[in-house]
Amino acid sequence: MSRQSLAKAHQKIQELSWEPQYHEPYMKYGTDYTFRKAAKKDPLKQVLRSYFPMEEEKDHRVYGAQDGAIRGNMFRQVQERWLEWQKLFLSIIPLPEISAARAMPMLFQAVPNPELHNGQAIQMIDEVRHSTIQQNLKRLYMNNYIDPAGFNNSLRSFHSDYCGTIGRQFAEGFITGDAITAASIYLTVLAETAFTNTLFVAMPAEAAANGDYLLPTVFHSVQSDESRHISNGYATLLMALSDEDNRPLLERDLRYAWWNNHRVVDAAIGTFIEYGTKDRRKDRESYAEMWRRWIYDDYYRAYLVPLEKYGLVIPHDLVEESWKQIWEKGYVHEVAQFFATGWLANYWRIDGMTDEDFEWFEYKYPGWYDKYGKWWENYNRLAKPNGHNPIVAEDVDYVYPARCWTCMVPCLVREDMVVDYVDGQHRTYCHEMCRWTDAEAFRPTYQGRETPNMGKLVGKREWETLYHGWNWADVVQDMGFVRDDGKTMTAQPHLDLDPKKMWTLDHMRRLAPLQSPNVLFNEMDDAGRAAFVADYNKQGPAGRPAPAN
């Protein structure tokens, strides 16, 4: 189809739109944004007549590659360390995709642009397709990988697990609160335009280096759709900019959306890329180098900074702080250490680091060994049951962290932890930005302006709070992370499948009950809480106790 006929077809589609006169429209998904002066254009002008043949061809390539992987015996060559981490990744990623599909109808009423509704409808189809091919990829791994345990039940279990709850709050952010905040700024302007670069481009490269060429095939097919989604977000952003009343909301949402994406995506993808790989070539980019190239240079400098010409205040301080978190404060390394600390509350096997890993980390992150090396040596020492407890219950100079109420990643950079009293509860936050999000941004009033559509963060958000006071064996059983024999745990702190070297529920029963730092924090008096915060801020790096002096 020529460009001219495509433009005519796209224009014809808009004639099918109408405003019903027979009832008063009900705004099911509200927004505090206004679009009185907005120019209503769709810069991409995609139509289904060109869309479906393109997607069909991409699906042929995806499913053809999967057939080739089975015939080519890929699963005998792929690194176990890598595929174990895919049990977490492939259980979580379909939920953001489906949430993104559900987010698009929220915009049909909120964004008064029939031309753009066409692009949003196509994005909805995209997101359903992405979830389908990703879940099919997980099914293929489960059927062919040496250890299917974890793949087989993760779809119904990740939402209640030690790490998966973080991914759940991230995905549900696409469909809760103000429709424009959630489905446009948070999803299309930030998550899809910026952070899918590391998610769908950098991570597939690492998969290929570990012998897995199926994940690159699937996720490059996904990423090739993101240009349309980016276009939807940018068009809505420009519409919002045309009305001066939207400026404070845009600046609020850019700050919230940037920070929550950084906290969750960098935590997860950074850990997969740095700690899920066996590729330790010195010329391979570290996650910090990937982040600097894909997000700092390609998104921040090329996309966000030019918005200043419209008078929009860009969150430069948060971009720089995110980089500081990754490069100076060891954010990704702290997250990987936390994931491994709680290996017993997960559903995959977490491989320990070797001397080759140590050397690579020290080369890419000078000073890494002094901070994290001893802990990982203890992790290896305690990996197989031999009369000792799992590492979470042993004295290895690690203080179990409090959870962040907002992003649900624990407060791992100890010096940044802050607290507040919100909605009748004392809450801990990993950073001042997460406190601001909960206590100021997600409120019915923002800077004196009524914002009734924002809502607030509610519920039992911390995983530890759900199981406070439980025996560890009962926690694992309740989550369903037990193998077919009814006693051997799905998760292990090593890759050895010898039954004599695997942890069981009997090992867990002798542990002290699980304690939630957040519950204990609320049980303290004011003086106790003040002392707790002062001590906590002096801890670390690598979760070390505060110095005695």
TrEMBL record:
Name the UniProt record assigns to this protein: propane 2-monooxygenase
EC number: 1.14.13.227
Transmembrane segments annotated in the record for this chain: none
Group of enzyme by EC: oxidoreductase
Domain of life of the native organism: Bacteria
UniProt KW keywords: Monooxygenase, Oxidoreductase
Species: Pseudonocardia endophytica
Catalytic activity: propane + NADH + O2 + H(+) = propan-2-ol + NAD(+) + H2O
Pfam families attached to this UniProt entry: Phenol_Hydrox (PF02332)
InterPro entries listed in its UniProt record: Ferritin-like_SF, Phenol_Hydrox, RNR-like
Molecular function via GO: monooxygenase activity
